[in-house]
Amino acid sequence: MSHNRHKQIDHKKSFFKCSSGSAAISFALMFPAMLTCMLISINHTQTMRDRARISEATNEASLAIIALNNENADKTAIEQNRKMALNYINYFVSQKISDDLVEDADASINIEYNKNTKVYSIAYKQKVDLLTSSKDKGKVGELNQSMIVSNKTESYGNTKKFNRYDAYDIAFITDFSGSATCQYSDPNCNDYSPQNRNSDQQRLQYMKKAIADIIKKFQKYPDIKFALVPYDIGVPVQQNTKNLAGGDSYGCSVMYKLKSPYDKVDYNFWANKNIAYARWSNLKDNGEMRESYLDYDYLGKYANTVTYYLDYFNYRYYSKIIGPAKELDNDSALERSGLCRNRHQAEVLNMGKARYACGENNPDYPLRDENKKTIERQYGKVVQLYDYMFSGKYSDVHYSFANTKTVDVQGTIDTLFSGITSNTITFNRLISPTVSDFSPFFGMCQSPLYSNNIMSEKVINLSTNNRRFLEASKHIEKFKASPHLVPFSENKNHNLDLLNDIQNENWQPGGGTDTITALLRTVPVIANGSANNKMMIIITDGKDDAGADILRDDFLEKGVCQAITTGLTSATNKNNGYIKKVANTATIHYIKLDPNATNLTTDEQYKQVYGKWFTNCMNGNREYLHEVQDYQSLFDTMVKIIQTETGNFVNKDESNQ
């Protein structure tokens, strides 16, 4: 038995001994084939990995390029796109692809832009050594070859530009002060500039053109509506009434809560009155007036003087401007026309009245019985206002009755929406050269005067006021209320009408600069808009008048910008009837016109250029501050502000969709 088992074991061993050589031979024959398959598989895996990396790189690069959106406009733009793409490719493939390599046969990149479909396409290919390639460059063989790897250009590296437009109310708050007449190449100009040079180079002209072109560009989007808020010191508004010579009249408007007692002044009544400031100033300087201007008893001590100045300069306006405009060249002609009445001598001698009473039927005629109380209660307040504005004693006050002495800053902010009606002050702006004869508020809302040749370089250079009045009389009969505030409306042709106004009217700027007044006066305009989004775009040379800058900074420090934007998105304000619709978004953008505009990069630079617009209004957010040099940069900036831009991946064969 044991002998047989031993034989069986020997038999098994003999079998393995006999077959082991055959297995070794088979494995030796199979191993090269297995190794070749494995290397081919690794090469293929590497190729797939390289292609995936390159495809991902071209995808990301195309998104970056669409953000630039330079449309391959010129060689500079093409080179900019090329370098942008290479930066992304270098990052994803972890290999430095130099310009020399791209120019060589080892790699190539092509960036196309289709203007019709707005598609950017990137095609990139690169020669990649296989793992089986020999490092010996002189050796040539089947396994010593490179492979060209590229992105799948039909589906990778393509992005299409989509512009999405929601409903927007956009208010252009535009600087129509005298400095807008400056040549935009002159960074040192900040005052009314002679127009004997090329008017097309004025800051105003390229501002007007840019706004007009923006309205044209978005004209096909009915849910985007524009408003215009032109300003100098105050905002000119239409009155829809005629002036005394038959042309248009216009108003001047601000929105402030004023301190007591200036909140009790009828500014419309006093807008065409002479308050004899020179007389009261002399009394003050001579020590005869020891009381303040507010408290002095003018009517008790100098009733005839008060009466005479109010009445005489009213007559003088008729005789020097309205009469000549109507070809009524003397007092007798004014009397025959019924505009004026020749008074009895006793009235003149005993009551301090002027020889001729003109416009007695007008509600604001100063000597009407119903106006006596107004004069008694408010005369001293207006004298004090005039002293603030024009005495030169107050460096923190500009030529507006709404100034650092009279405005309740916190009260204005607290009642920004609830007090829209009560805080909006609009007075009928007298049409005359900017002299003190006829109005204590002659420093405000001057731009329509310049647009209608009531004021001009010629008028400024005339030697006497009488000659200025005569020149003004030639234009008042055809006076047009422009520029003026254009609010939003439901009229389907609203944007077209605004465009026609901008393009067809001969608007000229004039007067000082008071930007915070314009921003605040925009609040009732934007609050009455019905769009989902509200946008206010301030366009100015950035130089407010002395005094106006102090008032501005006080408002900005106290958070007026935040009060405006949060108020427009407040459901409570909507429920209380203060705003027409709760906005999804509300933003304020500030564009500074500067021929020396530079590429600002640090917060300190932004603070230096924009001051509290940057630190307080925008809370340090640079996105809402823009510096432009000329028409093109202004237009491009406004397009960028208005457009919501997105880039989406597309397949090339779907790019027409």
Structural class: alpha/beta
Q: How many strands, which pairing sense, and closed or not: the largest β-sheet? A: 5 strands, antiparallel
Which residues form runs of ≥5 with pLDDT under 50? 5-9, 137-144
- The number of helical runs is 23
* Shape type: elongated
Radius of gyration: 39 Å
Strand content: 15-25%
As for the CATH topology of the largest domain, it is Rossmann fold
Q: CATH superfamily of the largest domain, called what?
A: von Willebrand factor, type A domain
- CATH architecture of the largest domain, by name, is 3-Layer(aba) Sandwich
User: CA-to-CA gap between the ends?
Assistant: 91 Å
Helix content: 40-55%
Tell me how many strands there are. Answer: 15
So what's the CATH class of the largest domain? Alpha Beta
Domain unit count: 3
**Quick check: average pLDDT?**
86
Written account of the structure:
By secondary structure, the protein is an alpha/beta fold. The chain has three domains: 119 residues; 314 residues, von Willebrand factor, type A domain (Rossmann fold, 3-Layer(aba) Sandwich); 134 residues, no CATH class. It is built from 23 helices and 15 strands. Strands 1, 2, 3, 4 and 15 form a five-stranded antiparallel β-sheet that branches. Strands 6-5-12-13-14 form a five-stranded parallel β-sheet, with helices on both faces. A three-stranded antiparallel β-sheet has the order 7-8-11. Helix 1 packs antiparallel against helix 2. About 2% of the residues have low confidence.
